Amino acid sequence: MAKHVSTDKRRGFKHALIFLIPGLALLITFMIVPFASAFIISFTNMRLIARIPARFIGFDNYIRMFQDDVFGRSLLNIFYFVAVVVPIQTMFALGLAILVNKKIKGATFFRTVYFLPTVTVMVVVSVIWSFLYHPEGLLNGFMNTITLGNWTPIDFLNNKAWAFPAIMLMSIWQGVGFQMLIYLAGLQGIPESLYEAATIDGANARKQFLYITLPQLRSTTTFVVISTTILAFRLFDQVYMMTGGGPERATYTVMLHIYTQGFVRQNVGYASALTVVFFLIVLGISITQRFILKEEREVA
């Protein structure tokens, strides 16, 4: 009997390994190997220009990084972006999911409308919103109309105070549909019997939301917060298309700095060092988030 069980376990392990191989191959090819290559290159002065041979320079790139004021500014900007976008986008996503989860006529239509920006190419979205933010664009025109002509047009993307908030607003609008869909799946997985029992006990809608909906969505919220944080740290497309990091580096991000160093200035070694450090920062924050949210679930 024991021999039979052991054989089944070996067979199950072989079958599991077969299913794991494609995913592992992709993970190794597109994540582990590139990161290992970047880590090695970060200790060299490699450039894109082939005629200049690369040589080992030790920790010079990392020392240079901590003396790079532009890198420090880009880190502050991206942390500011994450701190604003992640909680707001998460709350909006939950709110929209609750709305479209109601069994009313046209709910499917609104689900599609809210999700549509997510599948739209970011470059296209950035161009459209650049027109909206133009001094003579729709947003300024709308504000001028509702203020009866007393609105002074603002060049949002060229204004140091408004540029980053403008990109944040567009990013929240574009990405909230993805998180909404995840929350919607989580809401549909909550047993109706819990709400029925709460209604019988006299719990109103607010108490049902606080004591049933939110606790049941803890795992979903963990995934949404971590995935949204990682996506927010990757901010690049909209900044590159809409402001180029300006004005006065008000919207300059780490990803844009890596791109500039690696492909514009062709300093691949330094760009690789930036990539390694930034990856470790994002990884550390993601692990910390998961640990904190896990502790909250255990306490609850």
Compact overview of the structure:
The protein is mainly alpha-helical and 300 residues long.
The N- to C-terminal Cα distance equals 43 Å
Q: Can you tell me the CATH superfamily?
A: MetI-like
Order of helices and strands: HHHHHHHHHHHHH
- Low-pLDDT residue spans: none
User: Per DSSP, what share of the residues sits in E-state strands of 2 or more residues?
Assistant: under 5%
Rg value = 24 Å
How would you portray this structure in words?
This protein has 300 residues and is mostly helical. The chain is 74% helix and 0% strand. It is flat.
Question: What is this structure's SSE topology?
Answer:
Blueprint: H1 2-41, H2 60-66, H3 69-100, H4 107-115, H5 122-133, H6 138-146, H7 163-188, H8 192-200, H9 205-216, H10 218-233, H11 237-242, H12 254-264, H13 268-299
Helix pairs in contact: 1-13, 2-13, 3-4, 3-7, 3-10, 7-10, 10-13, 12-13
Keywords:
single chain; 300 residues; mainly alpha; MetI-like fold; 74% helix
